[in-house]
């Protein structure tokens, strides 16, 4: 006999779904640009490069500006 279409549709409909992603992986270019703007807003004060990068990356991933 075989599996009926309604059985397949039910299995597909009830299949577990992957969790929704709350974040997006930005490209290095996007992070660099966002980090540059953070540094610019601070007057390019040295010593905050890593902080600028990490905060820009997090900002882009979560969409919180």
Explain the overall architecture:
The protein has a domain at 25-65. The mean pLDDT is 83. It starts with a helix and ends with a helix. The longest helix has 14 residues, at 28-41. It has helices at 5-13, 28-41, 49-62. It is built from 3 helices and no strands. The protein is mainly alpha-helical. Helix 2 (28-41) packs across helix 3 (49-62).
Number of strands: 0
Distance between the termini: 58 Å
The ordered string of helix (H) and strand (E) elements is HHH
Average pLDDT: 83
β-strand percent reads under 5%
Q: Which structural class do you get from the secondary structure elements?
A: mainly alpha
Using only CA atoms, what is the Rg?
A: 22 Å
Number of helices: 3
Helix content: 55-70%
Describe the SSE topology.
Layout: H1 5-13, H2 28-41, H3 49-62
Helix pairs in contact: 2-3
Q: Gist?
A:
The chain is mainly α.
Question: Keyphrases for this structure?
Answer:
65 residues, mainly alpha, 3 helices, 57% helix
């Amino acid at each position: 006999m075989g599996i009926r279409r309604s059985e397949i549709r039910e299995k597909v409909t009830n299949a577990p779904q992957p969790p929704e992603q709350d974040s997006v992986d930005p490209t290095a270019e996007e992070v660099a640009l966002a980090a540059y703007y953070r540094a610019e807003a601070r007057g390019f004060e040295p010593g905050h490069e890593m902080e600028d990068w990490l905060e820009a990356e997090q900002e882009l991933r979560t969409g919180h500006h």
